[in-house]
Structures are given as C-alpha cells and as structure tokens.
Amino acid sequence: MFVPVPTPEEMARWDAAAAAAGISEETLMESASRAAMDCLRETAARKNIALSGASVLLLAGSGNNGGDAFCMARHLLDAGARPVLLCTRDPESYRGAAHHWLHVAMDLGIPVFSADAWEKGETNAPSAPDVVIDALLGTGFHGELRDREKRLVEKLNALPAGLVLAVDVPSGLSARSGRPSPVAVRAHVTVTFQAAKPGLLLPEAQTYTGRLEIRPIGMPRAVQEACPPSFRTWIPEHRLDRGAPYAVDHGISPALAERFRTPHAPASRGPAHKGAAGRVLVAGGCPSYTGAPCLAAWAALRAGAGLVMLAGPAPVLNAARISMPALTLHELSGNAADGSWCAEDAPGLADILPTFSAMVFGPGLGRSPGAADVTEALLHIPDRPPMVIDADALFAVAQDVTVLKRARAPIVLTPHDGEFARLAGRDKTGRAEAASDFAVRHGCTVVRKGPETVCAFPDGDAAVLRVGNPGMAKGGSGDVLAGMLGALLCQLPARDAVQTAVWLHGRAGDLCAGRMGEYAMNPTDVIAALPEVTKPIIR
Question: Which domain holds residue 6?
C-alpha cells in the first residue's frame, strides 16, 4: 500500500492539528520516546548489545528532538542503562514539554552536562559509550550546520560506539533532500515518527540513516487526512494494515506480487479482442539506435497492449522485421537522406495517431533538428492520446519547456536525473520536491527515474517507489519502462498506470537480479520476467 511521506512543514501541520484536537505536546513527546526506545531495544538485540548496564550518551538539541532524548533517558534508566544527557543550552532555558521532561530526568538523578563542555573534554561523560542517541537536530533543520553544530556532529561520529540511533533524522541531514549539510551523523538506525520524510527515502541519505524505522506515535487518522501530504511511497509490509511499525529497505518482497491487489492493478479482461487491450504507437529510432524503439515496443506487448505499431526510419523497421514479427510497422514519410527524423515526418504520424490509445515517443530518436520539430508538432495535436516522452525526445523538449504548457493532451515525461537537470536545472530542493514542482508548473506527469523513482503529477500529488536494483542501470532499461507505460496508459487511468508500470518494471528487475545477479542481467531479461510478475495479479 501507499503510505504518506510528509514534508517537514506538513509534519508540523500534523503536530499543530493534533494539539488543536487536544493531544498535548507532552503526550506526543512521550509517545515518540517510547517508540524510539522500542526501536533501540530491537536494534540492540540484533547487535547483541545488552542495554542493562550499558553506557548511553544522549546528545539533545534545543527543540523537540531534545525533549525526545530527555524522555528516552528516563526509559533507559528504567532498563538498567547508565544514561548521560548532553544539552546544547542551559537546562533552565528549555521551554514547554522539553523543559518538563528534562527536569523529570534531572529529578531522577540522570547526569546532565553541557554539550560545549563535552566537546572540550571537560566532563566525565563516557568517551567510548556503548550506545549514542543523536537528538541534536530534527526534521526542521535546513541550510548548513553552524560551526558549533558541525563540531558536535564530527565529535559524535568519531566516538567508538557500538550503536548509534538517530531520532527522527540524523543531525545535519536534510529531511527534504537527503543530503548532508555539509556533514551529518552516521547512524546505524534512524527512527522517525508516524511517517517517513522525503529526504530519508533518497539514496543520498542511506549512508547516514542506516536502517530506517518508521514508528507510529498515535497521530489521529483524521489529522492526517485533514492535512494530506505531498508525497507517498509504496511499502510492501502487510503489518501496515494494523498500524504497526515498519522499516524501509531497498528491494521488495517477492510476496508483494501476491498482495498487489489495489486499484493500480490492471483488471482481468475476460473475453475480449485486441482493441479492448489498447493500441500503442511507439515512434523513435534512427540509423545509430535501432534497438531502443524495438525494446520499447516489445515491452509494450509484454505489458498487455493488444496491438503495437512501431514507426520509424527504414533501418529501424528492418531490424524489427527480423526480431519482432508481432509488431505492425509504419515507415516514416519524410525520407531524410541520412535516415534521421525530419519535420515532414510529423503529418504522417498525426494522421494515424488518433487511432491509438497511447503513444511512446523518443527511444533512439536521435538529436537531429527534425526530431525537435516532430516533437513539438506531436505535442500540439488536439485529439492525440496520452503521450510518453522519453530519451532524445526529452532533449528536444528541454530546448523549450514551454511547449509542455501548450500541449493539447496528457504527457508523461520519463527523465533520469541528468535529463531532469537539463529540463529543470539543478535541484535546489530534494529529488521528489523538484519533480513535483516541475510537474505542477508545466501541467505534466514526471517519472523521475532512479534508485527511488518519483512519480509526480500535475495536481501536486507524488509517489516515491523504492523498487529495482543497480543491475537495471544499463542502456535500454528506460526504453523498457517507456513501453510499459504506453501499454498501461491504454488500460488504466494515467495516475494508476504510471505507478503500476514503475512497480512492475522494478519488480521484474528484482526477479532477474535474484536469478542471474545484477552484473549479468540486461533489459531483455527484464522484459522476459514480466509475465511472472503480472501473472499473480492479473486473473
């Protein structure tokens, strides 16, 4: 199922709404500390670290994360551990719930020292603690660490601790972008509350988060529904149905195929004909790249399209005739001398395009001036079907992204990070936020490919899907996904089609990696694995 991924600002609105509903800050802080303590116990058990008698150093910042640490110190004391608190401000200057829980800890005799004194070696805090709790900075952190914060993070990273747990987010890591600023705490496990944050799901964050645990803290469902988040991610754990904790790991469980019974799955068709399954037009290729459009067309067939036509220059069609007899073929009419695309190819495509349910344009297209002319012409056809713009067609769009706003029908863009940078410029926020912003501004759907693929929609909604593996980072993988998108756009609403195609593509890749290893697998193996992925979910 898809679970919420709120931004830091959206999480703050959840907190405010919970307070307005009568759930006090003290209550949420206590719930968070108990959730973090449960995560600590489980992680310590996996690492064979006994909490009873363990020395625990808790670095507490000035915000609510510090309050979480104050509560945890009390629970650690009850567990038989020897907690020591390091505070970044004078104990009397804390406010609200943090002030309350700090003084409870002090009344129980838990040692409290200044973080500055600890940094200078002026305390008797343990120099080699068994456990370190990082509660210095929370999800609201942005920008760069101050010099003092940077020194504290660096000293914490230098400790020979057997277990480092980060509360909510490793200090110094952006909860938006997943990037260090410029350094961040390197945790063995990060426990974040109620929902993951966008930056924590991105590959840049993994070095710092370690295992990412998401723990519920009693945030009412009504609060979450009243303040819907901008992003979502797919979590395969069936425990989610009971509101249990869950972990976010790379890859996906094979059992997920059996549970993938959501509105996103194509329905069984029963008796039908090829037209009922949709007609996909794949257009692309040039003399130098004959294989890319063939891969896209083959993938469209494997993903359930009833009929697939391949349109392209003669060299592309000659290759397809030999290897793919199930395709119908359409040779370009422009007849450029070098076999590349030219502006005269657009009218012929425009004539046949209304007879198709979806179009995939761009695999192997090349970067001739004529390719850009055809791209713009196709976007302006008023009665065309949904269109997937991939590969070199993205290069053409990047020359003038305003063509997207002038488009007359739905568009799905499929850039990897390099192509996205060409379209939108360098990210000033995280991958997901940048993709979502672009989708909203230009009225299109963006499938930003990567270890975590972002599906961003023109209404501002987005999903982050963590599926696939490094073995898929090979030429042709994007062509396969483009073809699958075309096929599923014939069968499902655009939003469902996009998310389903990304999931099926990644899942097929994971099956291939499990069988033959990431090193040897290739895009044709992914296509061949698609029936095994789709069979359990399409009856």
Answer: 2-249
